Amino acid sequence: MLLELAHVEVRYGAIRALQGISLGVDEGELVALIGSNGAGKSTTLRTISGLLRPTHGTITFDGADITNASSERIVARGISHCPEGRRIFGGLTVAENLRLGAVSRPRSAAAGIAEDLATVLELFPVLKERLDQAGGTLSGGEQQMLAIGRALMSRPRLLLLDEPSLGLAPLMVERIFATIAELKRAGRTILLVEQNVHQAFEVADRAYVLETGRVTLEGPADALRQDPKVEQSYLGAGGIAVVS
Amino acid sequence: MTDYAIQQVVNALSAGSLYALMAVGLAMVFGILRLINFAHGDLMMIAAYLAVFSIGAGLSLVASLPIIIVGTVIVGLLMERVAYRPLRGAPDVAVLLSSFAVGQILQNGTLLVSRLADRPQLIAFPSPDLLNGVVTIGAITVPKVNLASFVAGIVLLGLLTLFVTRTNLGLSMRAAAEDLSSARLVGINVNRVVATAFAIGSALAAVAGVLYSVQSGQINPYMGFTPVLKAFIAAVIGGFGSIAGAVVGGYVLGFLEVLVTSLAGIGDLLPAGSVSPEVRQLLHDWLPSGLASWRDAVVFVVLIIVLLVRPQGILGRRQQGDEG
Questions:
Q1: What value of ipTM does the predicted structure carry?
Q2: Which residues in chain A have their CB less than 8 angstroms from residue B186's CB?
Q3: In B197-283, at which residue ranges do the beta strands (DSSP E only) sit?
Q4: Domain map of chain A by residue range?
Q5: What is this structure's pTM?
Q6: Whether B185 and A72 lie within 8 Å, measured CB to CB
């Protein structure tokens, strides 16, 4: 496994937000993390990237223990986190946002950084037209593209995507999922948190279902999709599960 | 009239430069940490004392400048490491109180050192020849130190602009000021960025401290209080947390103060016949002595108006995405 969480527990004060989670992501896999609000999906991602410290358990990445590593070390090791709500630097230009995505890379990587910038701009041509524009002036969908582009600029070995479709217009949701599928085809390893369970199952290889800080179900996405419990709780009778 | 006006504009630019140099340091730190570092003014004071000691030791101002700046930067970095970094994540009030404590320690420490050195509490500042006297261009006479303040302000703020727009570290600083946890997620080393903000702020405060001391002619351990308060106002008027806002606020404050004080002389400067003698008499009676002493009151009134009309400041943006 490229990434492995073993019995990870995270507390917010007295509340145990994660109650001993174990999960893994293999090289080249797209793994979805689903569950309702407050189940601990974002907390899991924030813990992996070092923003939160587990009180228990271990996180290993590519064989190395990163449980207590600082965020900048984790990014430098190859994990990039595209946070919920996009969180781009609104007062900085699109070009500056992308440049900062590569800030963890050494000076000697300049050629590789230029290469990756070209790749990102090819993936999201609209960003190319807006390079000198402040990030905050972009539309929600464009900001999401910028957030993903920024995350890709560190040339991550693992990409964490937190609710990339949240709050976007349906057409833009399609566009973002098409991008995720494209990234997967290109061989990227992705851990995806989504409330849009239908779409997540479309692109994912495997999935974990989180409930109040525990993994309650796991397996191949195709199998989970058929699971009556998943169907009832997350897919809904009418098939509309886009709630936030 | 025009000469008088130009002279006052130069004065305003000079005062504004000092406020801007101070306000930028406050704004950089506040932007990242939400900390109002009231000990920032005491860095000016430290710089002034370092200047007195190194000039007193026979060094020229130019030769002592590196000592003054490096010394002040070391104090600024120590301040961050000892008093603020351990409190990262603590409630804002705790860190604010810590900044008052740091200020007190620096003031009393300086007092102690100057007692031990058998120096009085109030020390005359040995104005270097370089900054003494005036420059006369045509009918305009400007004190050299005012010109130096203006030039120093423009040059240093220009360099700072290049730093925050061209270098990765500078961009990281702006990014951290916008969204600290996003900055962490792209791999920015927050400790390094914070230390950089303190170092730059201290260096700018050092230069401002020397120029301020030349202007006032004397120094004491408590001299940092008024400047830091003014810098704070400048930063709030401009838009707290934004570097550009601090610069704009600094110059606005400089112009405001000079405007209020220089209006005192306006009654005598109006061309003959432009106003009736009664008005002229009224201006003469009320403005001169009256206005200059109202300077700070006017500044605070403007501050209140800004807070009422545009709470985010001239260049400030409303806070967004602050939940993380």
A1: 0.92
A2: 75, 80, 100-101, 103-104, 150-151, 154
A3: 218-219
A4: 1-78+157-244, 91-155
A5: 0.89
A6: no
